[in-house]
Amino acid sequence: MAYGVKAKLSSALDAAAIAAAKASSGGEAQARQAADKFFAANFPDGYLGSHPALGEVRVATNRDTGTVSVTVDSSATVPTAFMRVLGMDNIEVAARAQVVRQDLDMAFVVDNTTSLRQGSLGDVTDDVIRSAKAFIDKFNQDTDRVALIKYAYGAEVPVEIKKSGRGFEKNRIRREIERFNFGTNSNPNFTNSCEGFWRAKAQLESISTNRSSIRAIVFFTDGAPNTFSSTFVFDGPWGDGRTRSGSLRSGDNLPDPDNANRESGLWDHTRINSSIGSFHNFSRYVRRLPPYYDPRRTGDSEFRLFYPGSRRATSSAVDYDNINRISRNLLEDMAAAARRSNIYVFTLGLGSRLRDPSGPDSENGEDLLLRMANDRNMLGNKKLAADFRADEVSGLYCHAADESELDACYDRLASAIMRLTM
């Protein structure tokens, strides 16, 4: 009986220690509360006649290494039967568990586009802001490093990742999330997902020394990409062969010359919603699309714009099909490059639009988010199984059908990230 109680005690204590480590960002009180809950769930009082007691829960933070060590003790009293004739009415068994939570660098990317305010779900901006703040609260401001990125026509980094030392300013990130300014139907923002992702990847790679053991990008959106950035050559009265860096957008639907869904640009790729002077809505004067993604004019050729594959973008024509396909190709390429650098990608999609066909190839936006994360659930999907990359790190995708499911999705992503750190 004592051996059985000892095994049960150790198992319950492991669960309690892991739960305490996950909750340690809220301090020792929250860690203790989580440990109590999981210990009680895994070792009910009276098991084999025993009476357990959870002892001290100790949380030790090392700001230099970015690790958090959680130690939990417990004991149980086991009643005896035959040993009472020797004067031993009870046997005391004890156990100890320790969990070390590793260091984490994370870039949190949030869609700030029109549809979040006036899309099929109605105005969900308050829910998006609230759930994003709750997600940030799950991480340790003393040991984790976190950057915040927002995107629409272009992308901005309201809070950069800390380059030296550890930790992040949780209250500052919360304030910046509260300042998110989503577009309206009269002043729409389009979805330059790849620019938001590129900035997230650049934030993590800006730490050249003392990188964390675990690096992750968490990417939130409610739609498929339809905008991309590079450096373009302009002809005509607004160009005369001069170059401009910025964003071109295709719109959400098939092109119609009489409405706003036709291709247009340029917009400032360093801002959420800013046109570039007289070059706004003069995309027809772009001489041709460049071969590479290079809005910062560094000569970088890591990400190509043209592909001969199933999502064909094979010419330099400035048209709806090319712009939309390039926007999707770039995002997937950037996610793959991040994974090859052992950066985990976690994606969260909101709303039914992600499950509706869109773009010139009638693709579901959700499929793109699954491939970005390299989610193992693709293996059970005949259409996506071949796209899973077993030689790259695997993250997680979660779909929230509406705003009521956002918290549950963020909890799933946070739990998956925490598991990586233990």
Report on the structure:
- The chain has helices spanning 2-23, 28-42, 115-118, 125-136, 170-178, 193-205, 320-340, 365-373, 406-420; strands at 51-62, 67-79, 90-101, 104-111, 145-151, 155-159, 214-221, 227-233, 243-249, 264-267, 343-350, 357-358, 363-364, 396-400.
- With 422 residues, the chain is α/β, with parallel strands linked by helices.
- It folds into 2 domains: 2-101, no CATH class; 104-226 and 296-420, von Willebrand factor, type A domain (Rossmann fold).
- The chain has a 6-stranded mixed β-sheet with strand order 6-5-4-7-11-14, with helices on both faces.
- InterPro entries: VWF_A, vWFA_dom_sf.
- Residues 105-226 form the VWFA domain.
- It comes from Desulfuromonas versatilis.
